[in-house]
Amino acid sequence: MTFFETIADRARKRALYNRTVAELKALPVDTALDLDIYKGDAESIARKAVYGR
């Protein structure tokens, strides 16, 4: 992977991470409870989903 491909890949992942966090935080409370999601964990859930860690 070239330098520019690496930068583009990281930028795509960061955008996906930001979008995922925003969507998790925007979930209605009842939906979050049904899915067993605590909104305070949105960042860690998004990190695992996007980066795999």
How is the secondary structure organized here?
Blueprint: H1 3-25, H2 29-34, H3 42-51
Helix pairs in contact: 1-3
Give a concise summary:
The protein is mostly helical. The protein contains three helices and no strands.
**Unreliably modeled segments:** none
Beta-strand content bin: under 5%
Mean pLDDT: 96
Record field, number of beta strands: 0
Terminal-residue CA separation: 21 Å
How large, in whole angstroms, is the Cα Rg? Answer: 13 Å
Largest sheet: none
Kindly state the percentage of residues in helix.
over 70%
Q: Please, how many helices?
A: 3
Descriptive account of the structure:
This protein is an all-alpha fold and about 55 residues long. The protein has one domain (about 10-50). The chain has three helices and no strands. The chain starts with a helix and ends with a helix. The mean pLDDT is about 95.
What distinguishing features does this structure have?
elongated, about 55 residues, mainly alpha, 3 helices
